Amino acid sequence: MTTHLPTCSCCGDALHDERRIDFGFNLPDAAVGLPGEALHRLGVRALLRADGVGSFIRCLLPVRLSQDTELALGAWVQVDDATLRRAHELWEEPGYADFSFTGTFANHIRPWGDDLLGAEVATRVADPDELPVVTAVRHPVAARVVTEVWDRDEVLSRFPHPLPVDVRTDLGDGWRVVRNAGLTAGFADGYDRFTAPDRTAAVSLKRDDVPGRAPSDFLTALLSGAPDTRPAQRLREELPDGGVRYAFWLTPQDSGRPRHEFYGFTLHPSGSGAGIFCTHEEPDALAWAQGMWRSLAYDGVS
């Protein structure tokens, strides 16, 4: 099965290190939507002047995550024109190693955006081969971004782009699913969607409208009209909490469609459930689809 890993927004190299995850913002928020002729790069991509908006330097914002992971955010800091000129003079000179400056954070980043955007920050060069690093955030709430350790899944699930690690993602109503490395994330038409060039998964939540009905009977109702697949293409698993998991899958020969299809349900005794629909190109990606299905979990906390 092909693995689709993200690439560094600075150099384009594939990102394989699960302990450091790099994610970059191409522009400051205030410059998004400006015409190309209004954006002026000063020799390197990290130095920018935007007509009518201001001057910006791209920096690294390091965020410590659980599971011994660091999130290195390549984001923008707004500075005065003199600081931008100074950065341009020093960028590829020995003096760059001692460069430091202050400015205001210029990107809205969930889950800290409302406090972080516009906060004053202090930066310095920690490694001459990298961007300047935000060392302090001078805001009573936003300062927590660089001083605390954050839950890895909670933070990374906010980033829709492909990541090099699996991320447990909140679906709402107490349900979770593991979004695998290399998948983008989005929500449309009532489905959480996770995609890569060779595979897709769409997850929706279910609610039994018959109070007190057993999960097995709810499953029977959901399977009404489903194709009658061979026993080797069906799985049913009873869960310790009294729930039930069921899945079936179709090959292109079965369905006449160009990709393999996988349908799965996980139902809880409370009447709450989740369904997943996966497609994949390679037959051996069935194990991936089954893993996505089995990762559906209900904890009753929305």
Commentary on this structure:
This protein is mainly beta and 302 residues long. The protein folds into two domains: 131 residues, no CATH class; 133 residues, Protein Transport Mog1p, Chain A, CATH 3.40.1000. It is 15% helix and 38% strand. The strands form three sheets. Strands 1, 2, 3, 4, 5, 6, 7, 8 and 9 form a nine-stranded mixed beta sheet that branches.
Characteristics of this structure?
15% helix; nine-stranded mixed beta sheet; 302 residues; mainly beta; Protein Transport Mog1p, Chain A; 7 helices; 2 domains; elongated; seven-stranded antiparallel beta sheet
Number of strands: 19
Our estimate of the beta-strand percent is: 35-45%
CA-based gyration radius: 24 Å
Helix content range? 10-25%
Order of secondary-structure elements:
EEEEEHEHEEHEHEEEEEHEEHEEHE
Shape: elongated
N-to-C span: 33 Å
Q: Structural class of the secondary elements? A: mainly beta
The top-level CATH class of the largest domain is Alpha Beta
Q: What average pLDDT do the residues reach?
A: 92
CATH topology descriptor of the largest domain: Protein Transport Mog1p, Chain A
How would a textbook summarize the main sheet?
Answer: 9 strands, mixed
Would you summarize the structure shown here?
By secondary structure, this protein is mainly beta. The chain is built from 7 helices and 19 strands. The chain is elongated and about 70 Å long.
